[in-house]
Amino acid sequence: MIGHCTLSGGAGGRPWRIALQAPVAAGRVCVGLTPAEAMARVSGLFSLCGAAHGVAAAGAMGLPAGGAAAEAAMRGEILRDHAIALLLDWPGRLGLPPARALLSRLIARQEGDTTALYRDLTGTDAEIGTLDPAGLRDWLDLGRDAAAPILPCVLSRLRDVAPADWGRADLMPLAAADIGAALCGPSDAARDAGILPDHLDRPVLRALVARDGVSLFARMLARVLDLLTCLRTPGGDLFARSRRLAASCAPCVGIARAARGILAHQAVVRDGRVVAYRILSPTVWHAAPGGLMERIAAALPVDRRRPVLTCMMLSAVNPCIPVTVAED
Predict the structure, then answer these.
(1) Is the dihedral of CA 28, 29, 31, 36 positive or negative?
(2) Residue 239 in 3-state DSSP?
(3) What is the pLDDT of residue 313?
(4) CA dist 14 → 300, 303, 306 (Å)
(5) DSSP character for 24?
(6) Which end of the chain is more exposed for a tag (fewer CB within 10 A), N or C?
(7) Spatial separation of the C-alpha atoms in residues 156 and 144, rounded to whole Å
(8) pLDDT of residue 6
(9) Which residue, 184, 174, 191, is CA-closest to 266?
(10) pLDDT tens per residue across span 155-197
(11) pTM value?
(12) How many CA atoms lie within 13 A of 60 on its CB side?
């Protein structure tokens, strides 16, 4: 669906130019292997989301996926990815001190530390996902104090940089039919394969989207909700959509949920050996011409805030291939 290409967009001023490196056809390394060998190969190939790729590979080749242990490993990968962005990267870009101690506690979290971690991150025991618009505004107002907990601080600064409907890009969520069509041949469908659709039923995000559309800020809030969901629940809610997609796809297609969104693997096995293997990552959808990255860029201004907005856009989409953003 994508190769080495340049996408352009931008509201006013000189347009954005987004250059993307062609993704590696990682499925090729599985050809000739047994299903068990192929599953081990793809799990080790992707260091940031190896558990998710392992689950998708298992589904594609009819192998045991690992049950609760595999979901726990995927939840840990998702939590780590979001935590690094929220506690290290975002604060640094926004002039805030990084929350290194909190990051260490999150990654090495203990069973009894969950409630305290949630409170230290958010400054409240309330479920952020259930806040109404007034509750969200009050929570973000906590972040006006530099000594406030890290998440309201970061989101409050982000709101100042990218207010209201900036970066609006509303796409249909990825469906099983889209995955099937893309695996059968070239597809021009622009779909949201990211994490935002997993949280659109949460009152806080539903109200925000109803008012501002699917803005850049809404996508950043979705990463916060994803992190907090990983922290507070066993993960059932997090993987509900990927399970539904898996149940609707062909038997040779495996689906898993990663920090970037929905992974799809397709395998053809004959005489105990893999003869064809394809991987569709969320980035395949988001970096395609007319996809999420291009649409977000087209809805952002090009001005002195461009460096921060670039980082926000890339963090919201969370691509897994090198991306360069510049002005034409």
Answers:
(1) negative
(2) helix
(3) 82
(4) 11, 9, 11
(5) P
(6) C
(7) 7
(8) 47
(9) 184
(10) 999 888 887 778 899 999 999 999 999 998 777 789 999 999 9
(11) 0.90
(12) 35
